[in-house]
Write a structure and sequence with these properties.
Order of helices and strands: HHHHHHHHH
Helix content: over 70%
Number of strands: 0
Number of helices: 9
Distance between the termini: 20 Å
Largest sheet: none
Oligomer: single chain
């Protein structure tokens, strides 16, 4: 059995546990295909943190666009990150934003792999 940690050492512990759970019943070829697709779709927590910081000095809401929350991104853009309060909250919760997005993407990739 392939070890996901060897294929994706950049995963956070909670994300690793989730990925190991959904790939448990996959074959080795399916796991390799999953890793290739998932790695191209996932967002690094540091990217979310960096784009949240940009909200203080430039365009607010980029982190929300990156995580697929287009409506919130537009709201943040036009309200300066909800008067910086929403941007500060996102700054504190950047790992949760990345984790939630990555979980949704992992489930989509799992559904794609299962469809073959």
């Amino acid at each position: 059995m392939i070890n996901i940690l060897n294929l994706m050492p950049e995963l956070e512990p909670d994300e690793l546990a989730f990925i190991q759970g959904i790939t448990r019943n996959m074959t080795e070829d399916q796991i390799k295909q999953f890793v290739v697709i998932y790695r191209s779709r996932r967002r690094e927590p540091m990217l979310i943190l960096a784009t949240t910081l940009v909200g203080f000095f430039g365009v607010a809401g980029i982190q929300r666009f990156l995580t697929g929350q287009i409506g919130m991104g537009i709201l943040y853009f036009f309200t300066a990150g909800l008067c910086f309060v929403g941007t500060i909250v996102d700054l504190i919760n950047y790992k949760r934003l990345a984790f939630e997005y990555n979980i949704k993407e992992a489930q989509k990739v799992q559904a794609m792999i299962g469809a073959y």
